[in-house]
Specification:
Elements: E1 8-16, H1 25-39, E2 55-57, E3 66-76, H2 82-92, E4 97-104, E5 112-123, H3 128-136, E6 142-147, E7 150-155, E8 161-168, E9 171-179, H4 189-199, E10 203-215
Parallel strand pairs: 3-10
Antiparallel strand pairs: 1-3, 1-4, 2-3, 5-9, 5-10, 6-7, 8-9
Helix pairs in contact: 1-2
């Protein structure tokens, strides 16, 4: 089939919303594989006893979250117009997964350092905005974070960047920038845990939308 260097790596940007937020990362991978095969896009397969499509996701999304900024890298065995790749994939994918851009790879996923989120969360207490502001004004905001080496205590105070905070219909409305990537990844629900611990309440409902992924110098991942 030729040398790998002869083939073209491309990056597919897509949204994952609605019912698709309940698709796990493993199932999303399978879905993409099947849809690419169904679309007829000339994707490169690995060599060996168990060939599989070359496919790499930049920053897998947690189950139950929506996103406007997911991406997956694939390798083509022959040139194809990016608009055609987009159209073929959208024809094959479920309605709640939509490709909005196809482009050449520019950045290494290892460069990812931050992710932005838009969050709605309801707690079993009142005055949630006032309580949140008091929480973020504390000297430390400690939570327990599960890591590969076990449970670790983490101070969220220097890690959470609050872009905006408001309250509507007793729900806390947040726009946050959090560490993301291989070095450190902070799940927004850790902040919920800190809030509940501080005010002895519970999370009643939440909606989380990832709106952007950025490098260490805050360049948009592309």
């Amino acid at each position: 089939m030729g040398n790998v260097n002869e083939f073209k790596n491309i990056r597919i940007f897509f949204s994952k919303k609605g019912d698709a937020k309940y698709i796990s990362h493993l199932d999303l991978t399978r879905c993409m594989q099947r849809c690419i095969k169904r679309s007829g896009i000339p994707i490169w397969y690995t060599q060996g006893f168990h060939p599989h499509q070359y496919m790499t996701f930049a920053l897998p999304l947690a189950l139950g979250y929506e996103s406007e900024c997911e991406s997956v890298d694939i390798r083509l065995t022959e040139p194809m117009d990016f608009q055609e790749v987009k159209e073929r994939l959208n024809d094959a994918l479920p309605r709640d997964i939509r490709v909005h851009k196809v482009a050449d790879q520019q950045m290494d996923p290892k460069e990812i350092s931050f992710a932005d989120y838009k969050i709605q969360v309801a707690f079993s207490c009142d005055d949630v905005l006032t309580k949140f502001e008091k929480l973020m004004a504390m000297e430390r905001v400690n939570v327990e974070k599960r890591t590969k080496k076990g449970i670790k205590e983490v101070d969220l105070k220097p890690l959470v960047q609050v872009i905006s905070a408001g309250e509507e219909n007793d729900q806390l409305l947040l726009k946050l920038r959090l560490p993301a990537g291989n070095t450190l990844n902070i799940n927004p629900t850790l902040l919920f845990e800190a809030f509940c611990k501080a005010y002895h309440c519970e999370v009643e409902a939440y909606h989380i939308l990832r709106t952007g992924i950025f490098t260490g110098n805050l360049a948009e991942f592309c």
